[in-house]
Amino acid sequence: MKPTEEFEKVKSEYIQQMGQDHDLRMLSHRWFLESCKYKYSYHFTWMGRPIIQFPQDIVAMQEIIWEVKPQLIIETGIAHGGSLIFYASMMQAMGIDGQVLGIDIDIRIHNRVEIEKHSMYKYITMIQGSSIDEEVVNHVYALAAGKSPVLVALDSNHTHQHVMRELELYSPLVTKGSYLVVFDTVVEDMPDDFFRDRPWGKGNNPKTATREFLMKNDRFAVDTQLVNKLLITVAPEGYLQCVKD
């Protein structure tokens, strides 16, 4: 066995063991809960823009982009634009001739100004409107025409109904071997009173939508190896790989 193959084999074995280590998983989740008290995910930037993601998930998305080499990355939910800048910078660094498409129901003017003046904006297109609005969806499909592979990341309204509709609408765009990433599935694993000021919570969140979606759609499967190696992630069960055309 070649040294590189041996390295990958050993790594895979350790990752599988980590996924089976109940104590380590509980310790990781406890750390996650404690860090959320201080809005941990809000503390990071990418090339100057707040990204509002855990570092582990940023690294995971980098690995996916390197593996897939998508011509189009679609993200629902823009916020400050850090993720759009991140995806665009990955395309530039990897020499990918592609585009990043961001959709948000409310692109705040100060965020739009900062995104549009950023050096990575040449890779970015933004659409203001609900990600499940028919006109917006039609616009997205028009922009996606002829592009492959396509990678989709869902990170907007986190209610079951909204995410389920996003999954139904955007999953057909994801090509075999690429990913449909559902962020904030971790909401299901949080304390009952954690999201008092939000319309989502236990029983009504991205994970419940993802589980229902997977029961009806056999084109996708959870990348458990990826989730197991992260340990700390906002997207447990949320990294869905497209396994069928």
Task: Describe the model.
- This protein has 245 residues and is α/β, with parallel strands linked by helices.
- It is built from 9 helices and 9 strands.
- It has one domain (3-242): Vaccinia Virus protein VP39 (Rossmann fold, 3-Layer(aba) Sandwich), CATH 3.40.50.
- It has helices at residues 3-20, 22-36, 55-68, 82-94, 109-116, 134-144, 160-170, 206-216, 224-230, and strands at residues 45-46, 49-50, 72-76, 99-104, 124-128, 150-154, 179-182, 220-222, 239-242.
- The strands form 2 sheets. It has a 7-stranded mixed sheet with strand order 5-4-3-6-7-9-8, with helices on both faces. Strands 1-2 form a two-stranded antiparallel sheet.
- The longest helix is centred in the N-terminal third of the chain and has 18 residues, at 3-20.
- The protein is globular.
- The model has no long low-confidence stretch (mean pLDDT 97).
